[in-house]
Amino acid sequence: MSELRRDPVMGRWVIIAPERGLRPDQGQMAPSVRQSAPCVFCGGQESRDPTEIAAVRASGSARNTPGWQVRVLPNKYPVLRIEGTLVREGIGMFDMMSGVGAHEVIVETPDHGKELADLSDGQIVDVLKTYRERMQDLGGDDRFKYVLIFKNQGYQAGATMSHAHSQLIATPVTPKRVKEELQGSQRYYDFKRRCVFCDIIKQETRLTRERVVFENDIFVVVTPFAARVPFETWILPKQHSCDFVSIDHVQMSGMAQALKTILLKLRHALDDPPFNFLIHTAPFRRPRAGYWSTIQYDYHWHMEIIPRLTRPAGFEEGSGFYINPVTPEEAAELLAKASLTPPVVEPAIAA
Predict the structure, then answer these.
(1) In whole angstroms, what is the distance from residue 265 CA to residue 283 CA?
(2) Closest CA relative to residue 201, chosen from 163, 241, 144, 161
(3) What's the CA gap between 224 and 103, in Å, rounded?
(4) Which end of the chain is more exposed for a tag (fewer CB within 10 A), N or C?
């Protein structure tokens, strides 16, 4: 079973997961390889999968059978396992806890030939609704403090299956990166009594607009002022909210439009790059010592989309700096102008 170990210098938790080493072809799949259909995630292959956790299904469609639009499965090679008691212990000066959590796969479509960007807005709403419902369900488990929703698309972004899917991992601690965001947001609020993300939205949409890629009435897509990698983008709800779980159907429709738009723009502007996306939201808000008392005012949930066009090297690993060779302003201008449809290629004329 996996376990969590705490780095006593940096304060970060590392998951030691030897079972993940059992995944077939890990690190061996060529970047150009795509699994042929049907794969285990395809519609009609349900008998090859673990027991279904949840699904968006047509009326009357039975569990573990065809007829679904979005399907949630336990990860075959989980980082953390839902079974067991959360045990914390010290080993000399070191801190450790048992590898209890949840690791699930959200299969976004039964169609092997489609990616998330190819789905309709309504189908993307079904995916977002599934994210929300899984967060709500796992939030009822007192062992968990956080659920991270993320997507790896493309070999260089960490994907080992080409069928369109995303994942979630529920953890017994708040991830360090999220905690840093929470602390930074709290510091800003303590000083200005305003949400830093709300101020970013006002700055970008009302003043400069030079980093706005897309917006509708409910969401805005921007390249952040200090983007870590080329063409990094954020999807931000215009209405302040700290928790993705609070999103309603109208807001999901606006987010689906924004997400589909930016994914198509990235595809056509950058030749379908590998990318990760993730949703940063508030931890489960249960009363406990040291809890952020202003989190509902100072934090703002959002999605980050991170194309994998460059690779970190020694300086980045040793310093913690990011080196971005493309200015966010140039990236925003290119993406804002990018088409949502592929260019028309004229057929060659025979001589």
Answers:
(1) 31
(2) 241
(3) 29
(4) C
Concatenated DSSP letters for 243-281?
Answer: -GGG--HHHHHHHHHHHHHHHHHHHHHHTS--EEEEEE-
Contact present, 183 and 174 (Cβ < 8 Å): no
Out of 165, 280, 300, 302, pick the active-site residue.
165
Contacts (Cβ under 8 Å, ≥6 apart) of 107:
41, 70, 71, 72, 73, 163, 164, 165
Distance, CA of 117 to CA of 190 (rounded, Å): 39
Which amino acid belongs to residue 12?
A: R
Q: Max Cα separation, the chain?
A: 79
* Cβ atoms of 284 and 146 closer than 8 Å: yes
**pLDDT tens column, 272-315:** 999 999 999 999 988 765 667 889 999 999 999 999 999 888 88
User: Is 165 a residue of the active site?
Assistant: yes
Task: Write the CB contacts of 153 (distance below 8 Å, at least 6 apart in sequence).
Answer: 115, 116, 159, 164, 274, 275, 276
Q: Output the pLDDT for position 7.
A: 72
Beta-carbon neighbour count of residue 191 at 10 Å?
9
